[in-house]
Amino acid sequence: MNSVSQFSDASLDPPVRGFLHRPESPSGDALILTHGAGGNAQSALLVAVAEAFAGTGFTVLRCDLPFRQLRRIGPPRPGDAARDRAGLNNAIAAFRKLVSGRIFIGGQSYGGRQASMLLAEPTNSRQGADGLLLLSYPLHAPSRPDQPRTQHLPQLQVPTMFVHGTRDPFGSIDEIEAARKLIPSKTDLLIVEGAGHDLGFKGKSKREELPAKILEVFRALFVRE
Question: What is the pTM of this model?
């Protein structure tokens, strides 16, 4: 049976804090997930995805970004992004001590964006990861398609999976498809019909079938050669 426990590594700055899912039969691979600007590591979507991945052998960390560790509510401030990326970098470093296989990172909205920006940085300034899982990537602010958040995508050298709703105001499916073409590595897109930015996980509402579908497409993209 999979186990879930609190995780903390205060030896790093910023520290790494969150919830660790340990599978009953570990595969050696790991996934680090983080949250959007208004959420935290206990969001229903992250919990559901973490449980699905842990059920097939992934060791999964749902982590709170540094800005959320400091403030229980409210969005990140303009100066928080670099430290949040440093926190994700430290999470990868912490996981290198726990697993022997591949490490994937990503998350929902803001968290996924920071993960992608981290992996677009030069390799000598960050820990390595083997791929990205981007849930509701925020391509632009609602009603601001003239200000795309895609400048770093051509620097991504890892396979990347997008999960995006057809009613997401932060980017249309066509815009996501255009963004995929900017990434030189292989990509895939799971389209969630009728879903907004929350991918159907809002309040008590849950798309029960979605985590398994995410896992299915993810495993097809990241199948070992």
Answer: 0.95
